[in-house]
Design goal:
The protein is mostly helical. A hairpin with a 5-residue loop joins strand 1 and strand 2 (about 90-95). It has a two-stranded antiparallel sheet with strand order 1-2. It is about 55% helix and about 5% strand. The chain has helices at about 1-35, 55-60, 65-75, 95-105, 115-125, 135-139; strands spanning about 80-85, 90-95.
């Protein structure tokens, strides 16, 4: 009878370990899937981030308007990779041909930063600067 009770205790503990391993395995598979199916911009040159948490955003938002943009353009060219929150890659584009393609040819494929969209809504209401995606097509 003592052996039977020992088996019952182990049976209760094993599903927890199995569930934990299953969740960790699912997270690993999802991370690998996201890593290999998204478009990588890691080859695009850009400045080193000031911190992992805030990236290059403090320099961009706390400097005079355009100063970091022009500095990055002189150093790295018309397309620059900057780091956003928690290491997120973002592109700063100042090349005229690239901007023409983005705004005139396929503008709806390039969505605006959610932070900038919210700032536009708070400061100026729900207008053209705020609109994005399907909402922008209706305006």
């Amino acid at each position: 009878m003592a052996n039977l009770r020992m088996i019952d205790v182990n049976f209760v503990r094993e599903p927890k370990i199995g569930l934990l391993l299953g969740v960790l395995g699912a997270i690993l598979v999802y991370t690998c899937y996201r890593r290999y199916t998204r478009i990588s911009v890691s080859h695009v040159p850009g400045p080193e981030p000031e911190s992992f948490i805030l990236g290059n955003l403090p320099e961009i938002f706390q400097s005079q308007a355009g100063v970091p943009d022009f500095k990055y353009q002189r150093q790295f060219g018309g397309v620059v990779r900057i780091k956003g929150l928690l290491g997120e890659d973002r592109l700063l584009i100042s090349d005229p041909k690239a901007l023409q393609y983005i705004f005139h040819t396929s503008g709806y494929g390039f969505l605006k930063w959610s932070e900038r969209t919210e700032i536009s809504r708070v400061l100026m209401g729900r207008g053209l600067l705020w609109a994005d995606g399907e909402i922008d097509m209706c305006l």
